[in-house]
Write a sequence for this structure.
C-alpha cells in the first residue's frame, strides 16, 4: 500500500500589530494557494530511507528529523513528484517538511492528522504558523506571532475565499523567476525573520486595516476593497522593513513584470515578502488567461515559471491506495494543470 499526498503553498501577505486584551501583538497574515504544490507518494520499505525527486536532499533530512523525534527506524520510500520551488517565499521548506512528516506518520502508524505534532517533530517554529495552519486547513489565515511555550501560535481568524464561478473567482497569477546564482540558500528564512523583527515598527493603522477593511472585504466578496487593503498593508510592511534596516529591493526586471501586471488588469500586485515570487490578483478565468498571455510575451517560454492559482480552502489532502510505487510509476499520479 502507498499514500499519495498533495499540499498547498502559503503566500505571506504581511504582519500587523493587532489589538488584544494584553495590548498590541504581532500577527501574521497568510493566504493558502493551491499552486505551486507539494505532491508525493510514499510506502513502507524496511531497511532504509529512500527519497527521490525535487528537493529530495531536504526531504530526506526532514524525514530523518521526524524519525529521530519519535525514535523510529528508517523504513520508508518517498517519491516526490512536485515540490514548491525554493527562494520564492511560498513556504517551500515547511510545507515539504509537513508533507514528508505526514507520509512518515502514516508509514509508522502515527497520527497523520495532528498537524501541530507533525510540525513539532520536524522542528518548525512559531514563525511558520501560517504555513502550518495552511497545511492543516487552508484559507486566509490571521495567526498570532507567538504562542505559549512549546505550542504552535493559534489562528486568530480564518476565512475562505470561495470559488463557485470561474468568471468571478479571485485568481492569483504567479510568476516564479529564476533565482540568481548567488542567492542565499536561507533567503526565505532570513526574510521571514526580518519581517518579524520589523513588525514592532508597523503603525497601528496596519492592524485596523486588517480588521476593518481587508477582512470585511473577503466576507463581502469585494475583491476591489481587498486589493486596495492588501496593497496598503504590503506598503506598510515594506516601510517597516526599511526602518529596521532590512529593506528589500525589487530587481528592475521583476519590477517591469509588476508594472505589466498593473497595466493589464491586476487589482493588486507585489512580490512575496519572504521571497522572489511575483503575484497579481485578478477576477475571473479570462482575466487570468489574458494576464498570463501578456507576461509570457514579455518573458518568453524560458524566462521563469508562470501559473495561476486560487485559494486552497481545505489544506493538505491524502489518500491511501492498495498498490505499490513500482506499479504507480506505470501510471503517474494525476497532476492538476495550474494553467488551465
Amino acid at each position: 500500500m502507498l499514500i499519495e499526498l498533495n499540499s498547498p503553498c502559503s503566500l505571506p501577505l504581511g504582519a500587523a500589530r493587532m489589538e488584544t486584551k494584553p495590548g498590541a501583538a504581532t500577527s501574521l497574515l497568510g493566504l493558502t494557494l493551491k499552486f505551486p504544490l507539494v505532491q508525493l507518494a510514499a510506502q513502507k520499505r524496511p531497511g532504509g530511507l529512500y527519497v527521490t525527486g525535487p528537493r529530495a536532499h531536504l526531504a530526506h533530512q526532514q524525514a530523518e528529523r521526524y524519525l529521530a523525534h519519535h525514535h523510529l527506524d528508517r523504513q520508508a520510500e518517498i517519491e516526490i513528484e512536485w515540490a514548491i520551488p525554493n527562494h520564492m517565499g511560498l513556504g517551500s521548506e515547511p510545507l515539504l517538511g509537513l508533507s514528508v512528516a505526514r507520509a512518515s506518520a502514516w508509514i509508522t502508524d502515527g497520527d497523520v492528522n495532528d498537524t501541530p505534532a507533525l510540525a513539532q517533530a520536524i522542528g518548525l517554529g512559531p514563525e511558520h504558523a501560517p504555513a502550518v495552519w495552511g497545511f492543516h486547513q487552508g484559507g486566509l489565515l490571521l495567526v498570532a506571532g507567538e504562542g505559549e511555550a512549546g505550542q504552535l501560535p493559534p489562528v486568530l481568524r480564518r476565512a475562505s475565499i470561495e470559488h463557485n464561478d470561474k468568471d468571478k473567482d479571485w485568481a492569483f497569477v504567479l510568476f516564479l523567476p529564476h533565482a540568481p546564482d548567488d542567492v542565499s540558500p536561507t533567503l526565505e528564512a532570513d526574510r521571514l525573520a526580518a519581517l518579524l523583527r520589523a513588525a514592532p515598527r508597523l503603525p497601528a493603522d496596519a492592524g485596523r486595516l486588517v480588521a476593518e477593511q481587508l477582512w470585511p472585504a473577503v466576507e463581502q466578496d469585494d475583491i476591489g476593497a481587498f486589493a486596495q487593503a492588501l496593497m496598503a498593508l504590503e506598503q506598510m510592511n515594506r516601510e517597516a522593513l526599511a526602518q529596521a534596516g532590512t529593506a528589500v529591493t525589487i530587481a528592475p526586471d521583476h519590477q517591469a513584470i509588476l508594472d505589466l501586471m498593473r497595466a493589464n488588469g491586476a487589482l493588486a500586485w507585489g512580490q512575496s515578502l519572504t521571497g522572489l515570487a511575483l503575484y497579481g490578483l485578478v477576477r475571473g478565468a479570462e482575466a487570468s488567461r489574458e494576464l498570463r498571455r501578456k507576461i509570457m510575451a514579455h518573458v518568453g517560454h524560458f524566462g521563469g515559471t508562470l501559473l495561476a492559482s486560487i485559494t486552497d480552502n481545505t489544506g493538505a489532502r491524502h489518500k491511501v491506495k492498495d498498490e505499490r510505487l513500482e506499479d504507480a510509476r506505470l501510471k503517474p499520479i494525476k497532476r492538476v494543470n495550474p494553467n488551465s
Q: What stands out?
A: The first helix runs from residue 56 to 70.
